[in-house]
């Protein structure tokens, strides 16, 4: 059920010190979600072209992490386009020391050559090219989860005329807060559990942030589940954990991800709030919604809420139904 979420427009919060910045920079790239996609053909003819979903994953994700979501869209006749952001999927960084048996000393210093050079602009260029091709087949619904929200906002700055709707799924939507890091430095982000997930090595040396998702350490397992998938079954949690990629760009969380009201601001948009999210707290989601609505009062978010942790509901059916509703299906 749709609902309108209103919140007071808070004053911009001052940045914290260097130590806090570094900690939250790691947190911003630590498991902030993954995207889901497979290519699928329409199930049958309809009145005009069917919408084409382009789904953009978050940090440490890839185009294979939410296959059930893409499959659900395909079963309703909606094509879903696979996205692997630069440095993810086939071009992802998987040091040999990450394989079993792991060499943790080597893993802490192995460079991440692709992601060390990857910026938000690279992500945007990659997705713009996909949107241009997808728009030839039908109206594009551009979906971003978590840090994928930074990418879809910037894509809408570039090609608003090619996007029928933006959908933010517990995702970063920057307007007054210009970067993902800025969002994490607000009072509304104070309860995030992302900094409790241990990191490996020095991002400046590696060229990226690194997380050992294959760790069997009980403290790591407990912290990761609490932050990302608190209500998942143990089987579902471990299955999702094994789809994460160890490295994420250090540049993307600090690059300007803000939406331009003149371009991004004219694209219809939906926000799916995850009310049990302990990575991007609900208060921060609501602040981003409120600031976006204040920037474009004539084009406000259509808001939906799901009782789900950061990675989304273990059974994606409710999210699939919301996405289908955005397509009028």
From TrEMBL:
The keyword Ribonucleoprotein is assigned to this record: no
Gene3D superfamilies the record matches: alpha/beta hydrolase
Protein name: Alpha/beta hydrolase
InterPro entries registered for this protein in UniProt: AB_hydrolase_1, AB_hydrolase_fold, Sec-Metab_Biosynth_Hydrolase, TAT_signal
Source domain of life: Bacteria
Coiled coil: none
Domain AB hydrolase-1: 53-321
GO MF, any single term: hydrolase activity
Keywords: Hydrolase
Membrane-spanning segments: none
Organism field: Glycomyces lechevalierae
Lineage start: Bacteria, Bacillati, Actinomycetota, Actinomycetes, Glycomycetales
């Amino acid at each position: 059920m749709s609902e309108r979420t209103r919140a007071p427009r808070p004053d911009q919060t001052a940045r914290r010190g260097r130590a806090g910045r570094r900690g939250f920079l790691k947190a911003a790239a630590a498991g902030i979600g993954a995207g889901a996609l497979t290519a699928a053909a329409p199930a049958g003819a309809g009145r005009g072209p069917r919408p084409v979903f382009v789904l953009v994953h978050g940090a440490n994700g890839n185009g294979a992490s939410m296959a059930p979501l893409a499959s659900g869209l395909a079963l309703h006749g909606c094509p879903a386009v696979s996205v692997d952001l630069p440095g993810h999927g086939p071009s992802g960084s998987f040091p040999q020391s990450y394989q079993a048996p792991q060499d943790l000393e080597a893993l802490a210093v192995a460079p991440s050559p692709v992601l060390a050079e990857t910026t938000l602009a690279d992500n945007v260029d990659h997705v713009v090219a996909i949107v241009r091709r997808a728009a030839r087949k039908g109206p594009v619904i551009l979906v971003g989860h978590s840090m994928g929200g930074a990418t879809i906002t910037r894509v809408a700055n570039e090609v608003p005329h090619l996007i029928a709707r933006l959908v933010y799924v517990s995702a970063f939507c920057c307007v007054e807060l210009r970067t993902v890091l800025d969002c994490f430095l607000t009072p509304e982000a104070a309860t995030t559990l992302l900094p409790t997930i241990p990191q490996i090595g020095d991002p400046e040396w590696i060229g990226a942030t690194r997380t050992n998702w294959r760790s069997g350490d009980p403290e790591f397992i407990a912290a990761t589940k609490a932050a990302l998938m608190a209500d998942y079954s143990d089987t579902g949690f471990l299955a999702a954990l094994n789809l994460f990629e160890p490295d994420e760009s250090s540049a993307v969380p600090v690059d300007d991800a803000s939406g331009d009201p003149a371009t991004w601001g004219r694209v219809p948009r939906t926000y799916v709030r995850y009310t049990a999210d302990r990575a991007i707290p609900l208060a921060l989601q609501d602040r981003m919604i409120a600031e976006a609505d204040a920037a474009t009062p004539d084009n406000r978010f259509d808001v939906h809420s799901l009782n789900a942790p950061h990675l989304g509901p273990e059974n994606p059916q409710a999210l699939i139904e919301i996405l289908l509703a955005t397509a009028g299906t």
